[in-house]
């Protein structure tokens, strides 16, 4: 039995009475829950939202506010970019794979412009201006940014266009997104029960018909005439689940609101739900992208392993899963000085040396390791080429003495990822429940579980392994909407 009581489903025949009855129960009040609520109420359903915290928002409200949207949105056109759903789909299939969900990525890309308009119609603001250099979160309120679409190999697979749409804010946009969606939810007839923790589902003749929840130490039963929608987030805050499913994330800092405990996932598993890609995680590596792209990132023996101009989350995944985060950013004085002070986040080199031989010795790398790597890099950079990893010529320049090294494991996490965790990264899980494009939770045979729906980080979503910023808020709101419609129409 877990700390919150049994997770095994309760048979409806064993319930004496239901304390609350509604059409649709939405469990979790982040962006996916808000979107599900809005579409379910718009479809004419009575809705109750359960939220274990004292108010809505969840991890969505703490995020940077990026939403991955494209296909020719108003913001893209205003910034002078043409885009198609086909190019967006091709990029996401490559960036979120291997084995990204083709059906979900396809429909998400084709309906992205309409989803952008839905967000705008619900009060979510986007500014028609472009932030044009590598970063986690721009220090401005620019509404569009690149997410590695113009880097190798993606630029060869699809016509590049920036698709990182940032919610307008004087800081992180996640709080503005949730504020706007919550205002619209408040204008509906949906009831929001806060400080209410769902513990187990209630089933009847193989269908999910409600759940049991705890509020202020008391147990309550809820009946859902049409469906239960789980939008409860991932499991990065559940150490036991992380150790069981994603051991390479153990011991790292967590990027969440502290409540991503996986309860929704295990409640669904207890009624036969299948899960997908549970070992996958987003890795917010503790480095400044603007420094890395102007220099290089190397492993513990001084070898480059990726082109530094890709989305930094993909760098983080490569650094963690292939090199245990034992990686270094190598740069020179010019590269460091070119990064504006307000974009350095206080990061300073851990070692500085006049020669690469001296820097190798300070770091503890094999003699000649950096000398060879930087020598090869410089030789080709002088010609504007990177035959090893194909970094864009925009960022290629021979590095010159004095040289500096930044130990990523001792680095400072970018603002989007809070305080630096152990090992130089902040992570969250991106695996979860298997669902259809309409939010139906699937069982181990691939069949929908009647009455059970899910969206957001409680599901595997668009992803299999890769991650691009904006595919949590974008995925959550888009498929949250579809789950709400499905539950209301059951």
TrEMBL record:
User: Keywords for this entry?
Assistant: FAD, Flavoprotein, Oxidoreductase
SUPFAM superfamilies in the record: FAD/NAD(P)-binding domain, Succinate dehydrogenase/fumarate reductase flavoprotein, catalytic domain
Per UniProt, what is one Pfam family of this protein? FAD_binding_2
Instruction: Say which domain of life the source belongs to.
Output: Bacteria
The coenzyme or cofactor needed here is: FAD
The FAD-dependent oxidoreductase 2 FAD-binding domain, residue ranges:
23-473
In the UniProt record, does the keyword Oxidoreductase occur? Answer: yes
Q: Which PANTHER family match?
A: 3-OXOSTEROID 1-DEHYDROGENASE, FUMARATE REDUCTASE
Q: Return the protein name.
A: FAD-dependent oxidoreductase
